[in-house]
From TrEMBL:
It holds the Pfam family Mce4_CUP1. Residues 375-387 have a biased composition (Pro residues). Residues 186-230 form a coiled coil. This is MCE family protein. One of its GO terms (cellular component) is extracellular region. Residues 42-118 form the Mce/MlaD domain. Residues 369-407 are annotated as: Disordered. The keyword Coiled coil applies. InterPro entries: Mce, Mce/MlaD, Mce_C, MlaD_Phospholipid_Transporter. Residues 130-291 form the Mammalian cell entry C-terminal domain. Keywords: Coiled coil.
Amino acid sequence: MRFPRIPALLVGLLTVLMVAGCSTNGIQSIPLPGGVDVGDNPRTYRIQFANILDLVPQSAVKQNGIAIGRVTKVEVPDNEWYALVTVKVKNEVNLSDEARASIQQTSLLGEKFVSLDEPKDTEGAPRQNPDQAIPLDRTRTATDIEQVLGALAMLLNGGGINQLQPIVSELNKAFEGRTNEFRGLIENADSLIASLNRQRDDLISAIDGLAKLSTRANNQTEQIERILQQMPAGVAVLEEQRPQFVDLLTKLDKLGEVGTDVLGRAHEEIVTDLKALRPVLTELAKAAPDLITAAPLMLTHPFPDWLLPGVQGDSTNLFMTLDLRTLNQLEALGVGQGNPVYSPPKRHNVPVNPKNPYYNGNGPRYGWPTITLVPPGPDSRPGPNTPPSGGTYPASFAPTPKQGQGILDGTLATIGVPA
């Protein structure tokens, strides 16, 4: 019979299996059927995890939901409190030094796998060194359904869920009959939060400003302490002068009453004066270009600023004739002379500068100075109204006093003031 040969075959088969098992690293070293093919030259990365749940070797490694490798080893380094997971991925997967790793699961109760993610704009970032593990600050573990159920059980059994009943009852009592008011309160709160959100940049700037102020105050601690130490002495001085301050405030109050009374009585006059100033200010605004033109001469009188480029050296000569007689000065200002009359030039084809304020109906009269407010032309010369060197104005401008009348009476009569 051949039946005794069966136990011998079984023993031989078991022996072969035992030898095969001893020659490998266990069943976990055998790739799963249908797993991803990483090729002949895969990349190896090591990842640190604070918690790997029930992740085991030969688990999948995915990127953007596509399998790119598998877990080859799970270990805990000596004297460490984290798990070190070794993975192999396809050679074309080249992680940057900003890559993130996480433990995910395929479904609610599915198997765990390692997910590798790249942040945005990491194309030009340095690559991850395979000799250095991805640190804990770049890894995380997704919440497991077991943890959720455990927390829910703790809340329902030993938590404060039973204390919600009186809270809900009190809220119902508070809201009863006040639904519209609470709705308005919620809408106002929503508007407030939206306004704060729109002003978020301003709030951040204000907080940054407070931070800078705090830093500056912290750097000036000694000065602040010295001021605080000297403040009691200053407060004591103010305390001694309190009667004077009280008297000052009392007088200020009286001054305010008097000022209010004066302003009340002179209200119409003040309004009238302000209205009267309107045409003056309007004309000044119209004369703004002329004022700008005359400003250089006003600041450098009697030398116009255009004279400076022609000065050789550090000095220049000035020839000036001053007539300090009162009557002539009054006439030079136009007192008693009527409106200015334009005096045409005695010779023809004289170049005329329209920017000259003496031009076109406002020309100089006999006896007026002829200093122009704009730079003269290259061929210009003093006008005929300027008295020659050593000369005087005609005597007709100086009226002869009548018999029994002083020089002042004649001057007053000239300007229209009766004696």
